[in-house]
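--- STAGE predict ---
source: upstream dedup step, 1 unique chain passed
mode: sequence only
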Amino acid sequence: MRSEKPVPKMASEASETISDVVFRQVRQDIISGVLAPGTRIKLEQAREHYSISVSSLREILSRLAMENLVLAEGQRGFEVSPASIKELEELADLRTVLETHAIGLSFAAGNLEWEGRIVAAHHKLAAAERKLLAGDASRTVDWVRYDWEFHQAIVSACNSATLMATLSSVFDRFLRYHMLAQSFRGQAVVDDHKLLFELALKRDVEGARAVIRRHVQSGVAHVLKSGRIG
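--- STAGE serialize ---
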């Protein structure tokens, strides 16, 4: 589950530095579970693995610490932030607050281009979900990316870069728990996305907010049911 970034939100490849690329790689490895919660990040080994200097790696890990994906332990170095039920529930609450607020702003300002983004994003997401429901687990990476793109499209007309960036970071941290659960949520999540798609095109703010609240809480229940979070 690590070949692609589920949430592409950095600059274009042409303007990226080596540090930008490695930042995305390390971040993806944490979110996807390749770097498991609580893993001590040994700088010399990580330097060789990611082909970057120790000083640049320290800077990258410090940036990830600001997102609470990494813990900085002074002279002891860095480790991947542990996973906990408390954090999962806090992230769920925060995501709900941010996304439902953004929905109100986006539905009020959305235009035809916004509707087009939603239609295109849902088309890709639904295609990946059909494959997953048919048992093709290889589409998990596609689903992870398309899931964010769909939710992003829904709120993309909110006209607040700060809100979008904060929601994106929280979404990623919440997503990490779903990756740790290592299972697709099935027909229920597909139905939620279809209903949210329909409500967005109708500009039904309260209906969409209700779906998001249920969608996020059912996600929490799914992760807890997996038994992989202590």
